[in-house]
Amino acid sequence: MAIKQLSIFVENREGTLVEVTDAIAKAEVDIRAMSVADTNDFGIFRLIVTDYDKAKAALEEANCFVSITEVVGVAIEDKPGSLAKVIKLLAQNNINIEYMYAFITISRQFAYVVLRVADNAAAEKILVENGISLISDDDIENL
Amino acid sequence: MITLHNHYYQPEVETMAVDDIKKLQEEKFLKQVRHVYDNVPYYRDLCAKKGVSIDDIKSLDDIKKLPFLSKDDLREAYPYGMLATDIKDCVRIQSTSGTTGKRVVAFYTQNDIDLWEECCARAIVAAGGSNEDVVQVCYGYGLFTGGPGLNGGSHKVGSLTLPMSSGNTERQIQFMMDLNATILCCTPSYAAYIGESLKERGYKPEDNKLKAGIFGAEPWTEEMRRDIEKSLGIKAYDIYGLTETSGPGVSFECEEQQGMHINEDHFYAEIIDPETGEVLPEGSKGELVFTSLDKEAFPLIRYRTRDITVLTREKCSCGRTFIRMKKPMGRSDDMMIIRGVNVFPSQIEAVLLNNGYAPNYQIIVDRVNNTDTFDVNVEMLPEDFSDTPKKITKKEKELQAAMKTMLGINPTIHLVAPKTIARSEGKAVRVIDKRKRLGISI
Question: Which of A108, A137, B380, B403 is the most exposed place for a label (fewest CB within 10 A)?
């Protein structure tokens, strides 16, 4: 069920993000979610896209350094307290969230969130058992 | 107990009294200077430019008056300008890799080759070799001196020689195991690689019959020596040489592993200040300079090796009386002084190789608020990159600690994406010293 996330190594200098976003644009791939982790020297640009194979090929063509990680995609109801519920569930089951970020897509019913945990399968099992919907790579294409 | 004759290849010279060595060197030197002066117009011109005549050279001490030769001279004199005999007296050439510019071509008479091979034979015997050994030579054969030198030395000792040349690790391992090789000759990095490959194939260090390795032709560290010794179950010996003087075997290690004995009956060594050219006393750190005392075809007088080392005449318990040189710390033309410490790119390269990184790096030195900054960019290993900075930051810290151990000062390591540092063979790209641009004296 886990979804594929692209991580792109970007040096902290002008223009590196331009190269990355240009490559994705040229490949005609849509970005559905993103976040950046940064240090003094470099950043890691994380993306959920509509076609990760195509995006990865285009990025590598543009000499970007890319890796693919599996993360958990969660669809939570768009109302107060839904995110807190998910996080509490994971905490109660000792599943630590390394990082999380939200999708750009706006729907009236759901907010989509990316969760990075050590054990995807364990997190997914707990969430599904508690009636929380997950999203797959196929869903992302149709969002 | 080791019996003398198994211990030395030529005991009469290897254990000669120091005074006798000096007398022998002086005798050979005076003859050699005359030979070069008479037959190499290029060197005669250099002498004239320096205002020295052959008549001024009456003792070995007078060597100080003579001009140095550098790699640039050899390039300028390429191909025949340094040849001191007729071509009809020469039987072979060897050549440098040419990675730092035009190749240097060295010529050999049959006698030159015999003496060179004897030097290599001394190294093999010092590593415990005899006619009962199986010597696997996986230095490259051809223009490179490594293969031909150790091959010839092994013949002289009477060992069974496996002329493997470099590469094809599968075949190296097959021959090593099937033919019970006892002495391995190759570069230290290839020895480390063979060690890993054996492990991958499920062999333990005691499964092979190797007892010793003779490793040279690239910089390596004591740490690397211990790793190789452990992974192959051998004793690892260092060997030094350069194409310009003959090839490997200019100096070699004995079982004490405390520096390499220079074959002083064939080579006269000096240590000079690389800046002023002044000869430094024994024990000083400086640039190593060699004079070939016996070479006929390509005899170099005062050739600047660019290698920085220290010589010691201290008594060695192996019984050899030849002066010893420390493993070169780096090249004089590459030396940087950072926060008052001498740093050589070769040291950084050795740390990278020892830690599994490609020797592809860039050093950036600058001065901020009167303090030197020292940054090293290194290409990360693809497997160290995932989706968080944690692993990269951890790897940077580990590499920094390894550098500190080797250099004595702390560089800031920046891991960068693979294949982003230009693969140039020149030195300028390796080091960016911004202090020079600022006109700061360093």
Answer: A108
Per-residue pLDDT of chain A in tens (143 residues, 90 and over written 9): 789 999 999 988 888 889 999 999 999 999 999 999 988 889 999 999 999 999 999 999 998 999 999 999 999 988 899 999 999 999 999 999 999 999 887 777 888 999 999 999 999 999 999 999 999 888 887 77
Length of chain B measured in residues? 442
Shortest Cα–Cα distance, A108 to chain B (Å): 30
Question: Which residue of chain A comes nearest to B375, CA vs CA?
Answer: A41
> Cβ of B389 and A42 within 8 Å?
yes
B135/B116 Cα distance (integer angstroms)? 18
Give the chain A residue whose CA is nearest to the CA of B412. Answer: A41
- Tell me which residue has tokens 């075997």: B249
Q: Report the residue of B387, B392, B400, B419 to disrupt the A interface, i.e. the one with the largest count of A CBs within 10 Å.
A: B387
What DSSP assignment string belongs to B23-52? HHHHHHHHHHHHHHHHH-HHHHHHHHHHT-
Q: Which of A5, A39, A63 sits opposite B387 (nearest CB)?
A: A5
pLDDT surpasses 60 at B2: no
CB spacing of B389 vs A11 below 8 angstroms: no
Q: What is the distance in angstroms between the Cα of A9 and the nearest Cα belonging to chain B? A: 7
Distances in Å between the alpha carbon of B406 and those of B80, B87, B229, B319, B355? 41, 46, 19, 31, 12
How many CB pairs below 8 Å do chains A and B form together? Answer: 40
CATH number of A70-142, picked from 3.30.9.10, 3.90.1570.10, 3.30.2130.10, 3.40.50.1580: 3.30.2130.10
| pTM (predicted TM-score) | 0.68
Residues 6+ apart with CB under 8 A from A36: A43, A44, A45, A46
Q: Which CATH number fits domain B1-332: 3.40.50.12780, 3.40.630.30, 3.30.420.10, 3.40.980.10?
A: 3.40.50.12780
Q: Which one of B389, B416, B420 has the shortest CB-CB distance to A39?
A: B389
pLDDT, greater one: B270 or B386: B270
Strand order in the sheet with B371-379: B412-416, B371-379, B361-368, B431-433
Which residue in A has a C-alpha nearest to residue B416's C-alpha? A11
The domain spans of chain A are: 3-69, 70-142
User: Which residues on chain B place their C-beta less than 8 Å from a C-beta of chain A?
Assistant: 382, 385-389, 392-393, 414, 416-420
Residue of A4, A7, A8, A9 to mutate, interface with B, max B Cβ within 10 Å: A9
Least confident range from B47-51, B128-132, B190-194, B219-223: namely: B219-223
pLDDT in tens, B354-373: 788 877 789 999 988 888 99
Q: Which fold has domain B335-437?
A: GMP Synthetase; Chain A, domain 3 (3.30.300)
Domains A3-69 and A70-142 share a fold: yes
Pick the CATH number of A3-69 from 3.40.630.30, 3.40.50.1100, 3.40.30.10, 3.30.2130.10: 3.30.2130.10
Burial of B153 (0-12, 13-18, 19+ CB in 10 A): buried
